[in-house]
Structure formats: structure tokens, C-alpha cells
UniProtKB/TrEMBL annotation:
Record-given protein name: Tetratricopeptide repeat protein
Higher taxonomy: Bacteria, Pseudomonadati, Pseudomonadota, Alphaproteobacteria, Hyphomicrobiales
InterPro entries, alphabetized: TPR-like_helical_dom_sf (IPR011990), TPR_rpt (IPR019734)
Top-level taxon of the source organism: Bacteria
Signal peptide range in chain numbering: none
SUPFAM superfamilies found in the cross-reference section: TPR-like (SSF48452)
Length: 174
């Protein structure tokens, strides 16, 4: 058994658990949201979600991001919170963070085009062209009759085509 800094112990078979913490408590915390743990009615936070949306409309990206982040700590399974985080992070130039929030959107709602659109846009912005193409094509496929989502995905795909034509992206990534 190896003793690590701070009194935590780890072996090849057991995870690193800080000394004095109950593994059952850690497991419960890891599988529940703060809202569930504190028995909070998540609908009580709806006015804050509306406020964050208004901040986005006013292009107050940093303030909206901070509010979405707080709401995400309470319940990270709220789809609108993750979408808001991704949108604000995109506008703030925090593309890696936006991709992580978009990945959460995809996990929470795999048939929702918005997660793929947000991921694709941010992958495009940081030069991950193959990933961008895949996500944007998924967004197009999942957008269905939602014209604004289809238009946004198509615009980003056309921008990507100017940067990396389909033929060259296939030949360089094989």
C-alpha cells in the first residue's frame, strides 16, 4: 500500500480515497445531483434560468455564463443549463469548455441537434476539422424540420468546406 500526500492511501486495486471520507457517501454524492442531495425542487430555480437566458439575449455572456455555472452545480442534468453554458463559453472564446458542455448536451439528449451543432461549431473554431464535420453532419441529420438549426449547421459546414474541402479531409485523415 502506498501512502500519498495528505494521508490518502491507494493500492493497485482500490481507488484513491482521502483518509476519513466514507466511500458510500462518496458514491452517493457521485451519483446524485446537489438538488437531489438537498431535496430541492429544481423548478424553484426556473426564474434564474429565465434570467440567464435574458442575459444571453442582452449579450451579457460572462454574467450569463456565471449564472449557468451556478445552476449547473445544483443540477448538471438540466439540458437548458448545459446548452446555456456551451453558448456562453462559445461567445467568450472558451471553446474547450464549450465542447465539454456540448458533450453533456449530447449525453443528456442524444437526438437533439443543438449539442452536435454547438460541438461542431467549437471544433471548427479550434481547428478540429474532422470532428467538426462529423458533429455538423449529425446536427443536420437530427435537425429535422427545425429550419434555424439546419441553416446554422449548413452555414458552418460551408465555412468548413472553404477551409478543408471534403476530399482533402478524407485523404489526410486516413
Amino acid at each position: 500500500m502506498k501512502k500519498t500526500k495528505g494521508g490518502a492511501k491507494a493500492t493497485a486495486r482500490t481507488p484513491l480515497i482521502p483518509a476519513g471520507l466514507d466511500p458510500e457517501l462518496l458514491a452517493r454524492v457521485a451519483t446524485t445531483t446537489l438538488a437531489e442531495e438537498l431535496n430541492l425542487d429544481i423548478r424553484a430555480f426556473d426564474p434564474l434560468l429565465v434570467l440567464a437566458g435574458q442575459m444571453q439575449e442582452q449579450k451579457r455572456w460572462k454574467e450569463a455564463f456565471e449564472l449557468y455555472a451556478r445552476l449547473g452545480l445544483i443540477d448538471p442534468t438540466q439540458l437548458d443549463v448545459q446548452i446555456g453554458l456551451a453558448r456562453c463559453a462559445t461567445e467568450l472564446g472558451e471553446h474547450d469548455l464549450a465542447i465539454k458542455a456540448a458533450a453533456n448536451v449530447i449525453l443528456l439528449a442524444p437526438h437533439d441537434a443543438r449539442g452536435y451543432l454547438l460541438s461542431g461549431k467549437n471544433c471548427l473554431l479550434i481547428g478540429q476539422y474532422q470532428e467538426a464535420r462529423e458533429d455538423l453532419e449529425d446536427a443536420m441529420r437530427l435537425a429535422g424540420d427545425e429550419a434555424s438549426l439546419r441553416r446554422s449547421a449548413l452555414l458552418l459546414l460551408s465555412q468548413l468546406e472553404v477551409i478543408v474541402p471534403v476530399e482533402s479531409s478524407i485523404s489526410t485523415n486516413s
